């Protein structure tokens, strides 16, 4: 016979593990009690154990939120003021005080563990956008566009539209030569000088550069209807390195000027022109004209605007080679010879004939200017 106690363990299933004894194995009961205790359940002895509550998620620090919010509002205010043209107001005491307050909040956020990350972000934004940087951007923008309206009165805005130029009498502009007159007179003067020098010394000439006509500023923050004129330059192909020959050239040019009722040429490359010997040496290579790499002479038709310049460039008197480098840069840009005698016409505050009627009409809004 099969033992009855043993049949309880067999369970009637071939190959299956035996069933546990009634009440389970003693070791399993101890393990179950341990798990129940860990879960905070009652154990067989009736004692109850509790597990620790899970750690709550750390919230964002209020001070960090205040720092980043204050920074964003401050930066937006700066950018709006810059866009409105209030560059001067950016450097006012109020904006500086506000910036100090914002920086103080950022520092306070940085010293708190939970506000440190937002404080660091706010600090980075403030370093890029602050009174100094935004003010500098506004100044550059105003200078480039001449947009100073944000801090100018109506009177100043009216003055910006003045068609003339401060310091230049309107009757002198209207009664004097026009831009076209100056251009024609200058071309004729340089042609006579070139012909005389070519006939006397056999020089040939190279025309270089382009005519430059640009608007003048009116002295009140606006653009004038008057123009600044610079002619093309005419330079001898042949170098002129002998100082005695340079003096002879000046004498021949003076003959042409006197025949046209103009003053003789006046040297600018000496201290007699009103500048110090040190500055003469810096500009022309030496305080002694005999050793200068550049001779510069000038005359005008005062009170009319035409000015006539004569330069003599001489690389043989350039011991350092610095002046040659300058001349090579200019020659590469304009195509003129490196050295030789050069003629040019310059004039300021001249009115194009086509703008005369509009100029006179606009002057009616500016009596007494």
Instruction: Specify Rg, calculated over alpha carbons.
Output: 45 Å
Order of helices and strands: HHHHHHHHHHEEEEHEHEEHEH
Mean pLDDT, rounded to whole units?
84
* Helical percentage: 40-55%
For the largest beta-sheet, the strand count, sense and barrel status come to:
8 strands, antiparallel
User: Which strand-content bin applies to the residues?
Assistant: 5-15%
Number of E-type strands: 8
Q: List low-confidence stretches.
A: 1-11, 37-46, 48-52
The class by helix and strand makeup works out as alpha+beta
The tally of helices reads: 14
Query: What form results from the Cα inertia axes?
Result: elongated
In whole angstroms, the N-to-C terminal distance is 139 Å
Describe the structure.
This protein is an alpha+beta fold. The protein has 14 helices and 8 strands. The chain has helices at 4-10, 26-38, 62-83, 87-90, 93-110, 116-128, 131-145, 154-160, 170-175, 179-201, 243-259, 277-284, 322-334, 356-363, and strands spanning 205-208, 212-217, 223-230, 233-236, 266-267, 294-300, 307-313, 340-350. Strands 1, 2, 3, 4, 5, 6, 7 and 8 form an 8-stranded antiparallel sheet that branches. A hairpin with a 5-residue loop joins strand 2 and strand 3. Helix 3 (62-83) runs antiparallel to helix 5 and helix 3 runs parallel beside helix 7 (131-145). It is elongated and about 140 Å long. 21% of the residues are buried.
């Amino acid at each position: 016979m099969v033992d009855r106690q043993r049949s309880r363990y067999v369970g009637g299933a071939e190959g299956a593990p035996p069933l546990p004894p009634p009440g389970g194995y003693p070791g399993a009961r101890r393990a179950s009690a341990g798990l129940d205790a860990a879960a905070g359940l009652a154990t067989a002895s009736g004692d109850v154990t509790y597990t620790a509550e899970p750690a709550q998620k750390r919230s964002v620090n209020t001070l960090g939120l205040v720092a980043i919010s204050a920074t964003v509002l401050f930066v937006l205010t700066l950018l709006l003021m810059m866009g409105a043209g209030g560059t001067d107001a950016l450097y006012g005491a109020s904006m500086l005080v506000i910036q100090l307050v914002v920086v103080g909040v950022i520092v306070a956020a940085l010293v708190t563990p939970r506000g440190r990350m937002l404080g660091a972000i706010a600090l980075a934004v403030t370093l890029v956008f602050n009174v100094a940087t935004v003010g500098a951007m506004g100044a550059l923008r105003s200078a480039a566009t001449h947009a100073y309206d944000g801090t100018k009165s109506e009177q100043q805005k009216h003055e910006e539209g003045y068609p003339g130029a401060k310091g230049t009498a309107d009757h002198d502009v209207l009664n004097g030569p026009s831009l076209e007159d100056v251009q024609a007179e200058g071309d004729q003067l340089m042609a006579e000088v070139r012909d005389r020098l070519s006939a006397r010394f056999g020089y040939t000439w190279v025309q270089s550069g382009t005519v430059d006509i640009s608007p003048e500023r009116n002295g009140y923050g606006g653009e004038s209807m008057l123009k600044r004129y610079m002619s093309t330059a005419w330079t001898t192909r042949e170098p002129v390195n002998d100082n005695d020959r340079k003096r002879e050239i000046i004498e021949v040019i003076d003959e042409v000027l006197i025949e046209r009722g103009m003053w003789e040429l006046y040297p600018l490359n000496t201290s007699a022109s009103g500048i110090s010997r040190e500055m003469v040496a810096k500009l022309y290579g030496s305080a002694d004209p005999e050793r200068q790499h550049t001779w510069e002479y000038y005359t005008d038709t005062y009170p009319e605007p035409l000015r006539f310049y004569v330069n003599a460039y001489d690389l043989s008197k350039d011991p350092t080679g610095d002046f040659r480098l300058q001349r090579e840069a200019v020659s590469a840009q304009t195509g003129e010879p490196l050295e030789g005698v050069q003629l040019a016409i310059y004039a300021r505050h001249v009115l194009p004939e086509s703008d005369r009627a509009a100029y006179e009409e606009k002057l009616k809004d500016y009596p007494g200017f």
